[in-house]
Write a structure and sequence with these properties.
The protein is an alpha+beta fold. The protein is built from 12 helices and 22 strands. Bound molecules: flavin-adenine dinucleotide.
Length: about 500
């Protein structure tokens, strides 16, 4: 039977999640597909987690508009979705007198973009606020609306809210091509079969160019992956309360030294254009560049405090802006193109895409309405999503009450981050079930501490096997092909539940 929808959304990063949530407010059948085994596995999984104020995007660009509007939407978002978000403000730190003019330029851009609450501070004041900084600091642009968020929580919460409001999410489902009727898109071909729809929304991130080219749109547009590498420091060894940017370069906002909502300091990212859209591996040269860049801001950094490294890939587009000299500020594409019917096209959503995602979703709705789509609000749409209990954030009394109610909250599985079995079980049975180790990591923060999963992984693997009713050998880190276990070892030659007849 032909599956007919009103909207199909391709891609489940922060942008797809916000679009799904915004559209779930209206009547209509919505299918949302993601090629990976979980949501939030693309650019949204590995970034700096800053809700940018909007002073570095070029005035007059769609990017600047989405940045400033998106930033303003995060307070309500955080309240409705019960997600952590802190407006701590951020600093662009000038080191040496020669960097000071760059602050004036950023201030001018911010004013042109309508960023409220910016101020230029003297070097002494900056050092008084953060004595960890380089003593050669000459001044800083302080933007009070800058914030920090948890991109994993934000994506999950928006996605969950969309699903609870009726959006059908299909994981492991890869878009392959459009089904056309003349110049009208009527559906999509995927690795899981055909699905028909009146509208298709492209939020495929790194592959957004591939998707739009299949529709014959913007053949000149292409994505260039720009890798950014990071260090994570142990919060027990080094803490910082602020977000520190250097003055930006032509190709990036520069290497930050910043706190996260979890209290860890992160250093990075650098910006390296590469060819392979899947190569998020760390490199010696990249890590050296990040370390040197970070030490320029905070000279006292100690490599002994590093507990993890990671890298993310920016889906950099080539849509022109008023200033071709600034590479990192190519524009976002957010449009309903004239050349085909039934297509909402989003492309080049690199930084500040996380910040901008709610504004992009809002713009998608406006574009659809402008195209004559009679979006009718549901009477029972619920914007509220409640987070599940996070054991380590509860008071002793609350913890005791939770254990009384459900003893699985009394069993600590991840010792570094204090994550309980109860939290893991809750995520495996949530509206968007966690079915892999990394999916649990993104939802509960397990495995992110000093031991990096060394202690919890065996037990988490067992829990996933038991709860999902799958063999231990089928439990994966992040989907098919990333199984932890190849075969039983100590049971060699013993036929039993773990060893098949063939393997004995
Ligand atoms: C190093 C780095 C630092 C950054 N720092 C910040 C920051 O501090 N603040 C900020 O605002 N922004 C930041 N960004 C930018 C931000 O992370 C991205 O703009 C944002 O995450 C993009 O979201 P997305 O949903 O468009 O893409 P993604 O998260 O990549 O999601 C796209 C999804 O589409 C899926 N997909 C692709 N092709 C198909 C297909 N054929 N079929 C089905 N599914 C498909 C992918 O699997 C993926 O899950 C940073 C990015 C990087 C890499």
């Amino acid at each position: 039977m032909q599956e007919q929808y009103d909207f199909i959304i391709i891609g489940a990063g922060i942008v797809g999640s916000m679009v799904a949530r915004w559209l779930s407010r209206y009547e209509g059948r919505i299918l949302w597909i993601e090629k990976e085994a979980d949501i939030c596995m693309g650019a949204t999984a590995a970034n700096t987690a800053i809700v940018h104020a909007g002073y570095d995007t070029l005035p007059g660009t769609v990017k600047a508009e989405m940045n400033v509007r998106g930033n303003a939407m995060w307070d309500q978002l955080s309240e409705e979705l019960d997600i952590p978000f802190e407006r701590r403000g951020d600093y662009v730190v000038a080191v040496g007198e020669e960097e000071l003019p760059a602050l004036d330029e950023l201030m001018r851009r911010g004013e042109a973009n309508g960023v409220p609450g910016m101020k230029i501070l003297e070097g002494e004041e900056v050092l008084r606020r953060d004595p960890n900084l380089n003593p050669k600091v000459s001044g800083a642009l302080w933007a009070t609306t800058g914030g920090i968020c948890d991109p994993w929580q934000a994506t999950l919460a928006a996605a969950e809210n969309a699903v609870v409001n009726g959006v059908e999410l299909r994981l492991n489902t890869e878009f392959e091509d459009f089904i056309m009727d003349g110049d009208r898109i009527v559906g999509i071909q995927t690795n899981q079969g055909e699905f028909y729809s009146r509208w298709v929304i492209n939020s495929a991130g790194m592959y957004s160019d591939v998707v739009m080219h299949k529709a014959g749109i913007r053949p000149e547009f292409f994505i260039t992956p720009r890798r950014g590498e990071y260090y994570v420091l142990d919060r027990a060894d080094f803490t910082l309360n602020n977000v520190h940017f250097p003055v930006p370069s032509r190709i990036s906002k520069g290497i930050l030294v910043t706190t996260t909502l979890h209290g860890n300091t992160i250093l990075g990212p650098n910006a390296e254009e590469i060819e392979d859209r899947t190569n998020a591996a760390n490199t010696v040269t990249g890590l050296e560049e990040v370390w040197e860049g970070a030490k320029k801001l905070v000279p006292g950094l100690n490599p002994k405090h590093v507990i993890a490294i990671f890298a993310g890939l920016r889906p950099g587009g080539n849509a022109p802006t008023p200033d071709p000299e600034i590479d990192y500020s190519k524009d976002f594409i957010i449009e309903i193109p004239d050349a085909v019917q039934g297509f909402v096209n989003l492309g080049g959503i690199e930084s500040p895409g996380l910040t901008s995602a709610p504004a992009i979703a809002e713009r998608v709705v406006t574009l659809l309405q402008g195209a004559g789509e009679p979006l009718k609000e549901k009477t029972d749409w619920n914007p509220i999503r409640k987070a599940r209990p996070v054991f380590r954030h509860l008071s002793k009394d609350e913890q005791a009450a939770l254990i009384e109610e459900d003893p699985s909250y009394g069993r600590i599985i991840c010792r570094c981050e204090y994550v309980t079995e109860g939290e893991i079980l809750a995520e495996i049975h949530a509206p968007i079930p966690a079915t892999t180790y990394d999916a649990l990591k993104r939802r509960t923060w397990l495995g992110t501490g000093r031991c990096q999963g060394g202690f919890d992984m065996p037990r988490v693997t067992e829990i996933l096997s038991e709860e999902l009713g799958i063999d231990l050998l089928e439990v994966t880190k992040k989907g098919a092909g990333s199984e932890f276990l190849a075969r039983p070892t100590k049971l060699v030659g013993v036929k039993g539940p773990l060893l098949s007849e063939k393997e004995v």
